[in-house]
Amino acid sequence: EAGVTQSPTHLIKTRGQQATLRCSPISGHTSVYWYQQALGLGLQFLLWYDEGEERNRGNFPPRFSGRQFPNYSSELNVNALELEDSALYLCAGLAGGPGEQYFGPGTRLTVT
Amino acid sequence: GENVEQHPSTLSVQEGDSAVIKCTYSDSASNYFPWYKQELGKRPQLIIDIRSNVGEKKDQRIAVTLNKTAKHFSLHITETQPEDSAVYFCAASLPNFGNEKLTFGTGTRLTIIP
Question: What is the pLDDT of residues B24-73, one digit of tens each?
């Protein structure tokens, strides 16, 4: 069974640009969560999508947005990039048992 | 919202000894408490979890204890091995339509000294 996949692996953007990150959960997982992990820091909850709808969002500005597609894959968009947006962005899918989240390998976003 | 504090931030343990990482949470309604292990350059992986209806859970060398009254839970690793070296994150979740939002602790970097 394929695991959670994310693309691209690395992304380099300049300040003010937009970034698009993608995630495909494990087959059968309908929920996708996005987290930001800044260097040396913990995991900060960004967004939660389930059945195509945004269900919850963390304490991030509106320039962080996303969507979930009918096949349950998801896209995270970050507009008007700032230097402090540089981080590892992880997505996770919800397994059959409530609460167990399977993480993807992450996309490392660097803003210069 | 929920707030999770994790201590210590770094921990060095001699191989074979035990390691204990502690977390406290703020919302007494939280009912799901997973622990994730993140090795260097890799994704976080669930190693053990506990729900609020039990006080302790064990899986081989790893155990988690939960004290709902005090609102804290702990990860215990016995007979530590070099491969246990990693960053460990605790998390807590409120019972709202399942576990749609995990609040993570800030992580503990565990180093096993050979």
Answer: 999 998 888 999 999 988 999 999 999 888 899 999 999 999 999 999 99
A46 CA: distance to closest CA in chain B (Å): 9
- Spatial contact of B102 and A90, defined as CB atoms under 8 Å apart: no
Residue from the list A33, A43, A98 with its beta carbon closest to the beta carbon of B89: A43
Q: SS3 letters for A42-72?
A: CEEEEEEEECCEEEEECCCCCCEEEEECCCC
Which chain B residues touch A31 with a CB distance below 8 Å? 100
Do A90 and B45 lie within an 8 Å CB cutoff?
no
Structure tokens at B99: 């576990």
Q: Which is it for the CA torsion A67, A69, A70, A73, positive or negative?
A: negative
